Amino acid sequence: MKVLSVDHLLGIKYLKEEDIHLIFETADQFKEVINRPIKKVPSLRDITIANLFFENSTRTKLSFELAEKRLSADVINFSASQSSVKKGETLVDTVNNILSMKVDMVVMRHSSPGAGVFLSRHVDASIINAGDGAHEHPTQALLDCFSIRERLGDVAGKKVVIVGDILHSRVALSNIFALQLLGAEVKVCGPKTLIPKHIESLGIDVVLDLERALQWCDVANMLRVQNERMDISYFPSTREYTKQYGVSRKLLDSLDKEIVIMHPGPINRGVEITSDVADSEQAIILDQVENGVAVRMAVIYLLASKLKQ
What we know:
Elements: H1 17-34, E1 48-53, H2 59-70, E2 74-79, H3 91-99, E3 105-110, H4 115-122, E4 126-132, H5 138-152, E5 159-163, H6 170-181, E6 185-189, E7 205-207, H7 210-216, E8 219-222, H8 238-245, H9 249-253, E9 260-262, H10 275-278, H11 285-307
């Protein structure tokens, strides 16, 4: 049986191309499972997984929990907002307390970049990074690439533009790493103030004009503006942002080809994307959500297989 080259999923930058293909092949099988009348497999009946979310999350947390339960794992949910962390307990103490309950795997979202890496060095469990600050969100990038592969047949050779708040987005960085690893061409588009200074060092072109970016690409991945991560104003107004970087039906119809529209969610309808675009045939947003469960099942299953070795 093929195995992953890593013991944790801390970021796309630690993966090899073969790892991603293995995750996708496994996700293909799990996608068949979740579309059957009985959506459960007994693969991880002896594995206990703790979901540690130190930041609020609805979709990612639900997706992971569903993936774990579809694999028949035992699941512990931990929300930091109602926990001892508020009373001053350290991250390592919190996790060690949970591990003393004999947990095999930890899925963690944390506001500090590198929290997963730190944890993997201090605790004896397999760690899955469900988002660390504005750094990485590996499972989102995997499900995004899996969705492109499903719609267009392959990721290699495709032109993908990531549009919006690149500066504060962990989705953008993980997507850049994954898309490049799989042989896609990647550009970013957004206001100058929301593009990281050294993005070109990753081999990424910056396009400031949205129409030009859309004419170039096969796929546009639309990111929301992350107001909760901003301590200053990065553009004059939401209306101004939408005028320059929002995708409307009219704009899509003006292109001389049909492109695929993606969005990691949650969508700000009417800001980065209009409702008639979000709900159109060109958008694969709901496919991304469905694929998220299959891809996360694949990641959990493959990491758990290494625990059993």
